[in-house]
Amino acid sequence: MHDRPPLPEPFRSDVIRADGEVRIELTGELDLATSPALERTLQDVTATTGGGSVVVDLRGLSFMDSTGLRVVMRWDGTAREAGLTPVFIPGPPAVQRVFETTRLMDRLTFVDPPADG
Known about the structure:
Elements: E1 12-18, E2 21-30, H1 35-48, E3 52-64, H2 66-81, E4 84-89, H3 93-101
Parallel strand pairs: 2-3, 3-4
Antiparallel strand pairs: 1-2
Helix pairs in contact: 1-2
């Protein structure tokens, strides 16, 4: 009997609005198949948020490819044009490597995760 590796967690983008803050928690794999779902979430948040920061939490991602990176980068510009301040909580090393190898780390605002987790 062969042990199979666990299936990746399905992609989710959960929007949490609390204490005047908007946070989008991403989970699973962000790739060609799941990028449209993230795009819809980001468009909805941009359309329904009047201003202030929007925190995109990448810690729950297990994988991100160039398609996911393009969605994030495009939305960063769109959000700024809409008067929002997008900030990102770094993901695990495999996800952060995508930003580092493409030299896009400095184009986005990364922040430390909140003390409460």
